[in-house]
């Protein structure tokens, strides 16, 4: 593979920073801001042990407040950089840039962000990548605007030309487009040789229409980590068992089955009568570590063991995420990795 080839790096490749947006009273977090801020502080503290964090802040007051909270938590502030930006909410996996490598340069894919198919106001989020590009946040890069709704949480790559996604999400966004055509378009934009589609798998309380990053993720050396459900009485059991069967039937480009790492199933977390979407598959890979969503469940430790086997040589760092799933997402959903050399 020549260095000049356009390529979508895997998340476990070297990174320069993690991009997040600080929650504030003007976001959907307002009602439980204190709890959510604690999660963000734990997240930044964990990331800065290994690499830099780029924090979008809505205004000077938000920046001053975030800076004070992080400093008082003894976060390494030399590894934190703030970028003023307007945003509707903080799900940067879906509104941030999808970054491809092109030799020594980068291509920032700026897909349309529609608030998961028009469920929420998202006009400022949809302009975020353009804004970050205009204020020279990124090095050696060019932005490519693509008039097509696609969220970063809906796709996962092995870095070697294979993309994994779910039919439910892409069909929900683009009901008029056939699967063959969706495959062709995504393979072209994302520089992929092939697209693997999952037809099963969902989480109650998830408003993304089954993003792949809550269900199944690639890991190094032809492995797939996925959320399993071992409770036959649970409403998810049949769908996740069907998804596990689909994943077991997938083959690598040279025809071998993938090495499979099923994640344990946490006990149901219910909030005001509403089941929340707690998934261990929503982990974040950074330099030298995997940050794991922790839910205060007995299965947390078992999930950490699975991730340690799937990502050997990386430290597994739990981050408390019960506050996040109240708004239907978890750890991976609020972050976007920036490849080494981009900032």
Automatic annotation (TrEMBL):
Keywords: Hydrolase. InterPro entries: Peptidyl-Arg-deiminase_porph. It comes from the Bacteria. SUPFAM superfamilies: Pentein. This is Agmatine deiminase family protein. It comes from Luteimonas lutimaris.
């Amino acid at each position: 593979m020549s260095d000049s080839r356009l390529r979508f790096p895997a998340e476990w490749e070297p990174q320069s920073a993690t991009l997040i947006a600080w929650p504030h009273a003007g976001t959907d977090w307002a009602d439980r801001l204190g709890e959510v801020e604690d999660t963000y502080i734990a997240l930044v503290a964990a990331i800065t042990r290994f690499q830099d964090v780029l924090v979008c802040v809505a205004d000077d007051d938000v920046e001053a407040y975030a800076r004070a909270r992080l400093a008082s938590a003894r976060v390494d502030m030399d590894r934190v950089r703030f970028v003023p930006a307007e945003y509707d909410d903080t799900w940067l996996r879906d509104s941030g840039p999808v970054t491809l490598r092109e030799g020594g340069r980068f291509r920032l894919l700026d897909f349309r962000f529609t608030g998961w198919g028009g469920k929420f106001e998202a006009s400022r989020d949809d302009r975020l990548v353009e804004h970050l590009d205009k204020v020279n946040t990124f090095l050696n890069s060019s932005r490519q605007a693509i008039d097509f709704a696609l969220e970063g949480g809906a796709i996962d790559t092995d870095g070697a030309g294979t993309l994994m996604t779910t039919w439910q999400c892409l069909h929900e966004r683009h009901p008029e487009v056939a699967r063959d055509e969706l495959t062709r378009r995504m393979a072209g934009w994302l520089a992929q040789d092939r697209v693997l589609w999952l037809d099963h798998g969902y989480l109650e309380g998830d408003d993304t229409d089954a993003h792949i990053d809550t269900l199944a993720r690639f890991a190094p050396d032809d492995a797939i980590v996925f959320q399993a459900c071992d409770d036959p009485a649970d409403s998810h059991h049949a769908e996740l068992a069907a998804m596990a069967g689909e994943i077991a039937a997938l083959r690598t480009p040279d025809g071998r089955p993938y090495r499979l790492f099923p994640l344990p199933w946490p006990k149901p977390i219910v909030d005001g009568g509403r089941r929340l979407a707690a998934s261990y598959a929503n982990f974040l890979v950074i330099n030298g570590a995997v940050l794991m969503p922790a839910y205060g469940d007995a299965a947390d430790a078992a999930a950490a063991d699975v991730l340690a086997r799937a990502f050997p040589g990386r430290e597994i760092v739990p981050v408390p995420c019960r506050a996040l799933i109240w708004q239907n997402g978890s750890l991976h959903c609020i972050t976007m990795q920036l490849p080494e050399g981009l900032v």
